[in-house]
Amino acid sequence: MSDLSNLLLLLALAAVVGLWLKLSTARERAVREARQQCQQHGLQLLDETVGLRAMRLRRVNGLRRVERCYGFEVSIDGHDREPGRLWMIGNALSSLSLPTIELLPQEEAAARNTTAASGNVVPLRPRNRLN
């Protein structure tokens, strides 16, 4: 009986290590995806990392798949920290949530454009929100 319990313990340990490796690979893929999305939308990915926030089952083409939610922080202008989230099924991005940029009134936008020409202010441009 001792041999059977040792075998079960070894199988459980192997399953935990396998799950950890799979989730670690998925997290690396999520970091690359977050970096790519931030670059595409003109944002700065802070801390160059993501964290697993949630897992849920989702039906895709009639099959139940595990969807992972990763949270991260981005900066719009370098002086703020805004939350972002991405959801992945396998290696594919299924959804993305990024902070929005409020458009300024015309007078403030014109003043900001003149300041941007003088040196250290980066003008922001609106982006499409993906959901």
Describe the structure.
The protein is of the alpha+beta class and 131 residues long. It has one domain. It has 2 helices and 5 strands, in the order H-E-E-E-E-E-H. Strands 1, 2, 3, 4 and 5 form a 5-stranded antiparallel beta sheet that branches. Strand 3 and strand 4 form a beta hairpin. The protein is elongated. It starts with a helix and ends in a 13-residue tail after the last helix. The relative contact order is 0.12. InterPro entries: DUF3301 (IPR021732).
Brief sketch in words of this structure:
The chain has 131 residues and is α+β, with helices and mostly antiparallel strands.
What descriptive keywords fit this protein?
alpha+beta; 2 helices; 40% helix
Number of helices: 2
Number of domain modules:
1
Distance between the termini: 54 Å
Sheet of most strands:
5 strands, antiparallel
Percent helix range: 25-40%
How much of the polypeptide forms β-strand, as a percent range? 25-35%
Shape, please? elongated
Number of strands: 5
Query: Which class do the helix and strand fractions yield?
Result: alpha+beta
The overall pLDDT, averaged over residues, is 82
Q: Give the helices and strands as they follow along the chain.
A: HEEEEEH
What integer value in Å does the Rg equal?
Answer: 21 Å
Please mark out the parts with pLDDT under 50 across 5 or more consecutive residues, or reply none. none
